[in-house]
Structures are given as C-alpha cells and as structure tokens.
Amino acid sequence: MIELAVRRLPHAAGLPLPSYATEGAAGLDLLAALSLDAPLTLQPGARAAVPTGLEMAIPPGFEAQVRPRSGLALKHGVTVLNAPGTIDSDYRGEVAVILVNLGAAPHTIARGDRIAQLVVAAVTQARLVPVDELPATARGAGGFGSTGVGSGCA
C-alpha cells in the first residue's frame, strides 16, 4: 500500500475523503463536490467535468486512473467519457471527472454523489527503439476481429 497526499479544496469541505467501499475493492469512490443548492443535471448526450474538490500528489512511478462506476453506467447510462482517465504523478490541479450521459433520460448529480472510481496503479515508462523490422508472430498484422468470433458461450 502506498500513501497518497490529498488536499481538500474549500468546495469539498464536509465531504469525506474517497474510500474503498469493501475490503477487496480496487477503486476509491470519488464524490461530486458540487454546491448543495446547485446539483448538475446531465441531459441525454451531454457531458460535464464534475469537480471532486481534491488535489493529490501521486508518487513517481504511479498514476491514478479515473474509471466509471458500473451501477451508474448500467442503471442510468452515465459513464466516464475518457475512461480510464489518467492522472499523472506530476499533476497537482483539482481532479475532475468527465461524465457523459449515454442514457435516454436526464440524470441529476448532487453534492456527495459517488461519480467514479479512482484506481492507483504502477506505471512503467518505455524507451522507443526504432527498428527496420519487427519480430514475426502467428497473428501478424491482423487487427480488429482477426482472432475470430467467440465460441458461442455467453
């Protein structure tokens, strides 16, 4: 387990810090830091950056991934637009979640609503090495759908 320094901004005062809902949860629940008297209604097809009221210092060698909440996606069609969104270790601004309503009905987000999950993950940076030829594989350059269709099992 790593430590993550978090700074709560004034508009997040009174909201709990993100937490894991269960002992085995991979993601911390991010909350909407909206004004009590100004909930956000996302119309179908609309998107918005929802503030969390948090800034954080992610240690070098790690990133934080902002991921959708499955219940919000299934029940309302609301998801994270750039999923997973990446928060780099050198970013120090407020974390905001880009939500989109892919559902058929408007969806209202209120202060303190759980809007996304934050998963902290190790990062390995790569050094690109130009070559004239890549090693061959059985798949080769086969792209989208090239490995065939499923076995018919659901």
From TrEMBL:
Keyword Hydrolase: yes
SUPFAM superfamilies: dUTPase-like
Gene Ontology biological process terms in this record: dUMP biosynthetic process; dUTP catabolic process
One Pfam entry name: dUTPase
EC number: 3.6.1.23
InterPro entries membership: dUTPase (IPR008181), dUTPase-like (IPR029054), dUTPase-like_sf (IPR036157), dUTPase_trimeric (IPR033704)
Binding site for substrate: R69, S70, G71, N82, T86, I87, D88
Function, in words: This enzyme is involved in nucleotide metabolism: it produces dUMP, the immediate precursor of thymidine nucleotides and it decreases the intracellular concentration of dUTP so that uracil cannot be incorporated into DNA.
Protein name, UniProt field: Deoxyuridine 5'-triphosphate nucleotidohydrolase
Lineage, broadest ranks: Bacteria, Pseudomonadati, Pseudomonadota, Alphaproteobacteria, Hyphomicrobiales
